[in-house]
Specification:
- The protein is of the alpha+beta class.
- Helices cover 15% and strands 42% of the residues.
- The protein contains ten helices and 68 strands.
- The strands form 16 sheets. Strands 1-30-59-58-57 form a five-stranded antiparallel beta sheet, with no helix packed on it.
- The radius of gyration is 41 Å and the shape is flat.
Length: 925
Amino acid sequence: MKYILLLIVCISQFQAAAQKGDYLLTHFKPDVVGLDNSNFDIAVDANGLLSMANRSGLIQFDGEHWDYTPAPGALLSLDISKDEIIFSGGVNDIGYFDYLDNTFQFISLAGDQKFDDLFYKTMITGDFVYFLSENKIVRYNRSNNELRIILNPAGEYFLSLFRLKDQVFAQSESHLYILNDFILEPTKFQLPDFSEVQFVAKHPSREEYLFGTTLNQLYILREDSTFKTLKVSKEIVSNDYYAYDGTWISEDIFAVSTFEAGCLIIDRKKDSIINEINYNSGLPDNEVLAIVSDNEHGLWMAHEYGLTRVVPDVPILSFSNYPGINGNLLAMTREMGKTYVATSSGVFYFDQEKRFRNNVYYTVERINKRVKKPAAKPTQTKAEEQPQSGKKKGLLGKLFKKKKSTSTEQESEEEPKKGLFGRIIEKISDPFSGGEVKNIKGKPDENTRYVRRVKRELISSRFLFKKVDGLDSKTKQLLQFKDHLLAVSSSGLYEITDSVANLVHDESILHAFATEQYLLLATDDHRIKVFELLDDLWIESASFEVSNEIIVNIFSDHVGRIWVVSTNSLYQFDPEGLDLGSLPFAQIPNQYIDHVRGTVINDKIYLINSSGYFYFDEVSGAVKPDSALFKRLGRPMKHLQQTNGIVWVFDGQSWSRIDEDNEIDTYQLLGMFKDMTFIDEVDGNLWIIDANKQLYQFDREQGQEMALNNKMFIRAVRNPEGEIRRTGDIKFSYENNSIHFELSRPDYLGISQVEYQYKLVGLMEDWSAWNSSNTVDFNYLPPGNYEMIARSRDVFGEVQESKEFSFGVNTPYWQRPWFYAIQIILFVALVVGSARLNHGETKGKYFLLAEGLTLLTLVLIIEFLQTLAGDSLGFESTPVIDFAVDVGTALMIFPIEFVLKRVIKSGAELSKLKKMLKGEQVERA
């Protein structure tokens, strides 16, 4: 027995040692003033745009920008059609979001209907949209705008609505119906446990469906229409979780949300929970109101404090959610299987804490061997009881209910246990054959000896950080020296043994570097001190002053030389002669007094700071810039160094690693850690600390490939009248020809660093320059037809092009043919009228009127011709161009003006004009 218990303990200890970190969580909160975080449903469209049914209306998010559209009441559910129309059900109303009166708004479908319902499920199937409440199903036909109401034949509450392939099912409290047209009919389709359906989630690529029931059982409906019962259901029931909703994240991973324990991540192949996302792992609240998976294998969880996203495929684990650690995280390492973290308040190590309890039991021995074993009493089997599901009371009861009682268990007669474990259990349970009993019922047997024992039992365990005793000051470095773990702190040098720190040198240390033989310490008093360790004896071998400079780095080159770097100078240290040159080898360009990283690249000494990359030319003895490396990597806006000397640089978008052979590996995924303060490679993994006191582990074996399935699209189009529907034949009036475009490519990890460019066909011949701005404005577009095309480029170099947006700007009425015709007719009438007033009997009588009308006619004709000439030239209007057109037109129309003036002033010319209009032959003078 003791060997079996030892084996179990060993297995549990091994599992404990393999404890992994938590998934990397990203938290979001709408930046819209006045909104709370009551989001009851989430959906993702084909472009990757996130839409949420909020208590105040519709919220949309693309990773950077939030949009809010109010609704007449709280929205409780939504679904998005293939043509990107958002349908939603809410409190006493159903409808959709679309453009009306140049505004994106909620449009009700209720019409004359007066609903008194909470529509907590919206589902689109083909041309039909279904809205589910507890009392009815409303079906909207998009093809003919018909609205039909379907009631439960049994008068029960509806629990869920789901589809399998092309069929729609409705689950009530005790019946499952199939919807034929608009009639609910009973179906023979049933779950294996005959319970009610809580949720159904279709597999992302196969005709398989995940079923969750009101009894917390999970099933997979396979493509051959058979059910597979998932064993993980037992774990859910045993932990007293209430599985409220489910969604597939990837081909083999799905998530189940709960109201008590956050979200469960389940592996279908392993049939087990592989991770629990809850308060202990960084989720702000365990009560998850809604979940959805996006196009990039990300899981979204809505809770009281906003939204949280997790991507299980991302090879980054967080170790920051374990309790016990204090201060700002500065460095980490692993020694003898333990993880140590240096902080501003000391050093902490990752350990397991176990809780035990002492159980009293008795060993029993038979005294009188002749006493027979009493006959076993016959086992009575209870009648099996069918679990019953309780009724749901209202939407709020559905959203915030507690788990239904599942305490009714079916008892069955167990088969006799065979094998080693069966014999052990039989021996323990039979006191007359010798063994153990937990308690003694009734009067003790006189022929049995009872010996009291106490057994220590493990009841729980958890992982946490524990503080290393004896070190309470800021610790900057953790390094190995001759199999000793050393901590470099502001109060001195400490040697860490397991969980205790022992002070070795009590002087504030800025930087430490270890060779095989020596330990070099840069102290606060501008000195370099050299220590040796002989067995357990620490010896200070030498001490040197460094001209009142601050030492920031010490490193060795490819031939074993030691180099000491200050903020402005480079020194060489001779470990054999224990000598530090009194003069610096070279001056370092460092006008910003930045930290300097010293390393070896291609057998050359390199010095890297925020100004650039520099190498030490040993021939000239000068530090020179490396423009080629600068061109390859860009400016090192931030830079870090591993304990082995390898340098990392950040160019504002991604982190790159430079090794000693000048090979550069760019890690785009690490671009999410723009404020990284520490990086090192330990046991084949990268360990990262950022400015937010977070500790992460990055698995390099999983590579850098990420699912980037979100699409580039034109998110909004606006003109002075408001928002524009982006479908159909779109024409803008000449008065509203200033167009604003908003572009988007959803990026929820914040690593894509998306840039945009555009081309307006009809106005631009070439693409615009790449720009990080997602807005484009065109002011006062001339009349014509246009096609807006935009494209995006991410940090991985992937270019995506949006769908084109075609539109036109109408010609103003004064430039249209009919308006020109009216002008010509008016001018002819004016010419004729002026000519009549300028000859015959009326010439003297209406002299002033005739002269004024003549002048007006000439001016209007000249202006008309100038306008016609300017429009035909098609130049972009400027004052200089307008003046040039006016002068040129005046010179060209001067002969026409002369002829018109003669026509108006001369009666003979008027007679000729009449004959010309009649088509008669006119004799020349």
